[in-house]
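Lab notebook page, bench 4
Experiment: in silico fold of construct C2
Operator: M.H.
Input chain length: 354 residues
Purpose: comparison with the prior construct
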Amino acid sequence: MSIAARHTRLEALGAFLPPTVQSTPELVARVAGAPEFDLHRITGVAERRVYDPRPEAGEDSYGLALKAAHDCLDKSRYQASDLDVIINASITRFKDGTRFCFEPSFARQLAGELGLRATAVTFDISNACAGTLTGVYLLDRMIRAGIVRNGMVVSGEQNTRVAETAAAEITDSYDPQFASLSVGDAAVAVILDESQDEADRIHHVDLMTCSEYSELCLGMPSDRTEGIALYTDNKKMHKQDRLRLWPSFHGDLLAKQGRTFVDEGFDYVIQHQVGTRFVEYVNAVGAAEFGTPMPQSLSLVEEFGNTASTSHLLVLRQHLRAGTARQGAKYLLVPAASGVVTGALSATISNLGV
């Protein structure tokens, strides 16, 4: 069977949110000096989930990913031993406290702890906040090519480590670490397998990297303390020409198929959860570029903040569980990541276990 003849679907979706809630006023109270900004008004983030630092809580990046993977398997018709591949997409790789772990890979360690077969394919990827959708892209191609039958993409993000650094170091809203104050902790895991029904299918998933903007958002050790920091040029990152990358890329992709954005008939769109203003602005840019109103926008940035690579699937899962989005609808997920990465995932979802 050719790659064009196969299709994939989202079979099960799991997540884990640390139970500890931190309000925006609680975070701002930790900012050094006397902050002269209204973080809630600027970002739209009212609260976020934060990890429990106690080792027994298991809420470092690895522990969060493991919990989400278990939740996903609980919703799936597959057992761990049935999976052919596991891909980890975490940006943060904290394990055993403050240790940043690259080897052995999180995917290999998760496979062993979950009970995947020794022959299962395991690897980590790193593509900033587009990491989980990049994992979906790769797994989609592997299934369509007949390399594997199914698999899991998982990510656990202990993001608030950068918020802790920012709170200790910044003094005003112009500091390049300001965006770090909008993040929250979360984990997601999704299982893909082959689609047998057009009403339950990933129609296309494609991504593009534009290296011109690669230095606008960089994560690295702090240049002032021993913390881990995120430096973002918010003004340039949110300029209209950069936000046009998505509709330009997606429009060209559809044109090659002889289709338009209107033809797609999307019911919902999920943008990256940078902030409420960002979501509104990028949807407005999309509407202007495509010449049509955007579908209903799903967002939870007010409640969870920017959960990095987990954001799109976390929003999807929470809205499906709450009944504020429906099975049988057509979804558009639009990645946005430092790099700069954009793209589109189009899927009709009818039988997703959440």
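Observations: The radius of gyration is 19 Å. Residues 61-75 form the longest helix (15 residues).
Next step: discuss at group meeting.
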